[in-house]
Amino acid sequence: MRHEPLNLYSLTRAELQQQLVEWDIKPLHAERLWKYLYIDLVSSFDEMPELLPKLAQQLRAHTTLGVLPTALETASSDGFTRKYLLSLPDSARIETVLMRFTGRVTACVSSQVGCAMGCVFCATGQMGYTRHLTAGEIVAQVVHVARVLRFETPPGAAVRATRHTLGTRLRNVVLMGMGEPLHNYDAVMQAIDILRDPHGPSLAAERITLSTVGVVPGILRLAAEQRPMHLAVSLHAATQAERAALVPAARKWPLEELMAACRTYSESTGRRIFYEWTLIAGQNDSVEQARAVGELLRGLPAQVNLIPLNPTTGYDGAPTRSEAAKRFQEILAQEFGIPSTVRQRRGIDIAAGCGQLAVAAS
Fold it and tell me: Is 114 annotated as a binding residue?
């Protein structure tokens, strides 16, 4: 039976060391390989000249450097956002987004090909679910963005940066791309462990945000395991009936059950949750809706992220006006003491905004 090659991006540093032991190679040689992967950001085995020859031979015979080829790159007109259509080994494709904000760069990565949650205003939900991504396919997206930042020509520079120059370092990752991260829990957590490794990508936990539609077992597992990254919960409505109309997963995990899990999470971890609210004109952006969400979150350590609806071909709602969003914020702050932000819109013209990622069926 032919075995699939081992994707190096799927291994933690400890697992990589153990693999070398199984090949009768001293585990200390894993350190140089790890640096090639995550410090030098190499894209092929040919760029690893300092490896022990025996190790190089084993890598070529039994592993793959899981670089994801770019099928299409699209840049927004304002220059702040770039979207990458990346090809997977089985010919499926996913989208990954690089977003620039003042003082930071963020990678928005996918956790699945498609999504099974079916949120009515989300393009990924409209395309349906194909499969989970592996940990290596999740990590590879972050490495892709880090490599773009490292090797792109800085503004005004006469020559390209090399892998030995600092370039722009990626410091923020949001699991808000295609898919439901908590539906693919084990692979997502494996990827996060790799990305947080202090000898590799070294992403701080407070710079990683995981967004869920409200998969209750996953939230409770996060609480039990004391996972330190930020948690964002897609709420969108303050009653069960209204939420189920927008978020079909609410039929499986009702609002009351979801809020109980959120309370458990905050009490167990001491962390606030970011509650996401897609503002749809005339549907959930009224004064009454603002007060309803304020009552729902009363007493919880919470912040509300207000997200004006982004257009998709499968949903005909409209984004709320800025005046309504401001009024929503004022009610949350003045009547309930709940902080909120209105999400900066990035990449709408290239369908790279929140809820817009999707690919054609392969």
Answer: no
Q: What crossing angle do the helices spanning 13-22 and 30-38 adopt, rounded to 10°?
A: 140
Mean pLDDT computed over every residue of the chain? 92
Looking at 137, 262, 276, 354, which residue is catalytic? 354
Q: Which domain holds residue 246?
A: 70-350
Question: 95 an active-site residue?
Answer: yes
Q: Is residue 359 part of a domain?
A: no
Query: Could you give the CA distance from residue 48 to residue 42 in angstroms, rounded to a whole number?
Result: 8
Q: What is the mean pLDDT of residues 106-127?
A: 95
Domain boundary among 31, 49, 64: 64
pLDDT of 156 = 44
The active-site residue out of 4, 50, 95, 267 is 95
The answer to whether 351 and 83 have CB atoms below 8 angstroms apart is: yes
295 is known as an active-site residue:
no
* Long-range contacts, stretch 236-241, CB < 8 angstroms, 24+ apart: 236/119, 236/276, 236/277, 236/278, 236/284, 237/284, 237/289, 238/289, 238/292, 238/293, 238/295, 238/296, 239/292
Tell me the helices (H) and strands (E) count for the chain, helix number first.
11, 14
When divided into structural domains, the chain yields a total of: 2
Q: Is residue 126 part of a domain?
A: yes
**Among 278, 262, 5, 285, CA closest to 125:** 278
180 is known to lie in a ligand binding site: yes
Predicted structure pTM score: 0.94
- 108 known member of a binding site: no
CB 43, CB 58: distance < 8 Å: no
Average pLDDT of 100-125? 93
Does 262 show up as a binding residue in the annotation?
A: no
User: Looking at residue 60, which CATH number applies to its domain?
Assistant: 1.10.150.530
Give the rounded distance of the alpha carbon of 8 from its chain centre.
20
Asked if residue 167 belongs to a known ligand binding site, the reply is: no
Position 155 scores a pLDDT of: 46
Domain-located, residue 361 = no
**CATH code for position 269:** 3.20.20.70
